[in-house]
Amino acid sequence: MTDKTVADNRLLHGGDYNPDQWLDYPEILKDDLRLMKLAKANTFTLGVFAWSALEPTEGEFHFDWLDERIEAIYQMGGRVILATPSGARPAWMSKKYPEVLRTTENRMKMLHGGRHNHCFSSPIYREKVAIINRKLAERYGNHPALLMWHISNEYSGDCHCGLCQDNFRNWLKKKYGTLDKLNHAWWGPFWSHTITDWSEVESPSSIGESMVHGLNLDWKRFVTDQTIDFYKHEIVPLREISPSIPITTNFMADTHDLIPFQSLNYSEFAKHVDIVSWDCYPAWHNDWEETKDLAAKVGFINDLYRSLKQQPFLIMESTPSGVNWHDVNKTKRPGMHLLSSMQFIAHGSDSVLYFQWRKSRGSSEKFHGAVVDHDNSETNRVFQEVSAVGGALEKIAEVKGTHKQARVAIVYDWENNWALNDAQGFSDSTKQYPQTLQKHYQSFWKKDISVDIVTLNQELASYDLVIAPMLYMMSLDTISKLENYVANGGTLVSSYISGLVNETDLAHLSGWPATLKRIFGIDVKETDTLYPKDRNTLTYNGKQYEIKDYCTIFERKEANILATYMEDFYQGNPAVVENCYGKGKAYFIGARTEQAFLDDFYEELQKEGNLDSEREILHKEGVSVQRRDSAECYYLFVMNFTEQKQTVTLKESFFDLLKQEIKQEQIELLPYEVTVLKREK
Ligand code: GLA
Ligand code: ZN
């Protein structure tokens, strides 16, 4: 827990506000304030891309417009999140100092354009950022409107210029000390890749077809460290001048499947921010999955970002309608905006903020959803739905700061994801590590059982059940962490493609690591990768389940067999086992199964661990119930993610915060309807 929290007792509602695009339109700026009140918006993120308005020519600073806007928002009763502008820079800077431009992985210097494309090493860029950030801190660091700092925007990408190459080499020297150690970790002699001088190290590139997996992995680790280093450089003046103001930077997800952002290890980054915030853009109403299945993915990713600091987080950006960058930019159906906004709060967010307050008039985001459309009207549907969210957030304001408690954890590890994606073997089209975790998560989401998604940095001891599928990369430290967890009474679930390599992606020798053999009571021999159309079957508790993609062939030692393969040359061999180890238990799921198996398998574990007891609301398919707790009360968010009316049975009576009335026995939810129920403990 950090001691810096957002000093405002409202749930934040508002979002990215770019008055710098409208300085020649005084009537629009005036109208913004009127509309902000009508939208029941209270927080605005200013300055994200305002560098050219703040410093139109080198060394000449214009703050008047920002002074005026911050003051006007404050007078209206609103608060401000102030961004540092490094996400995009003025054209004069790129022209005068080309070193600030990024170099692509095929070693091409980029031209000015786009955004999020500066070199993280450039001393000149760092100097320019330090100057503008200090000026912002001096001018606004103690302004009563200032709620928090928003550093840059959606940090991402890498730079392959000479400065970055040198930094990478220094990072490696610090990590390995000697070339012998580096060459051992990278398995240097393979294809004659032994490095004989540090200057021979080059960042991975498609031109170089880098197949040195240790190098690829270290580059990704370096990029995370270098991005954090840039962020730490940005916050120096802010910490110095405004030490009590919390600092965040907005994280992302990789959209189509809403899997964790792949390019940066956020479990490392999270250590350096006061509050985790992130930008969430699910493709609601798409044509490849049911609403409830997408809702489960939204639950998963929010639980991951909440669990990074085990405290409430912020949704920094979301859209009131559609976006402009999905394959198809569909608008949210009536009701979905309130439902999806409440889902953020249900999973631990203390805000619903948008990109963007007002649709820009030109350039690439002029058709991106916004609270205020080009019609500047408060009567259109989207504005009305936003204002309804504002009203709902006011009614449930007391949930701010409350926590989620989970007894189940699913492990997600960024480095494992990188190494497994890079591994040449198995099948690239079916590895799907984060998607597999989403499936395990589903078995709990459907039952309304809270789950934390934790990384390997975190403590496991407080969880009754830890699920760590496809943990391909396991260092000896990780193995002993898992061993301690089970030995001390925990229940652990592992799966196919686990425990195969160490932290530099070198295969473990002497077969499956001895400690894993002991924990699971088995010895893994082979992983059979199936063609996408291949199927096998396993029997479990007298029922048959389809399996595909991966089958582990293993020998049973002490474990009890729970399921066996029905076909192929390993017919009759164990497929799923359980093993008692120390005071705990370990399960190994050898094959990729259909969802029904995971649901039934986890139902047994849920019963055994009493994870599903004391339900106040009976499960209803497609209706998700999520809980937040304060010391005295708890809150249940009951969310209908179906296109049908649903009747839900209550075992206790509750106070409905949205409708301000008592609810008991049964509630009816219209399609996409949400209700927030409160009960004292
Ligand atoms: C990101 C950016 C915003 C905006 C939105 C559009 O989240 O941070 O500036 O471009 O995407 O969805
Ligand atoms: Zn660079």
From TrEMBL:
Beta-galactosidase trimerisation domain span: 406-611
GO CC annotations?
Answer: beta-galactosidase complex
Active site (catalytic residues) = 154 (proton donor), 317 (nucleophile)
Chain ranges of the Glycoside hydrolase family 42 N-terminal domain: 16-396
What positions does the entry give for Zn(2+) binding?
119, 159, 161, 164
EC code: 3.2.1.23
> Which CDD domains does this UniProt record tie to the protein?
A4_beta-galactosidase_middle_domain
Gene Ontology molecular function, alphabetical? beta-galactosidase activity; metal ion binding
EC class name: hydrolase
Biological processes, Gene Ontology terms: galactose metabolic process
Q: Which Pfam families match?
A: Glyco_hydro_42, Glyco_hydro_42C, Glyco_hydro_42M
Could you name the domain of life of the organism this protein comes from?
Bacteria
Q: Does the keyword Cell wall biogenesis/degradation apply?
A: no
Beta-galactosidase C-terminal domain segment(s): 622-679
Which keywords annotate this record? Glycosidase, Hydrolase, Metal-binding, Zinc
Q: Where does substrate bind?
A: 115, 153, 325
Q: Which reaction does it catalyse?
A: Hydrolysis of terminal non-reducing beta-D-galactose residues in beta-D-galactosides
Q: Which family does it belong to?
A: Belongs to the glycosyl hydrolase 42 family.
Please identify the protein, giving its name as recorded.
Beta-galactosidase
- Write down the species: Niallia circulans
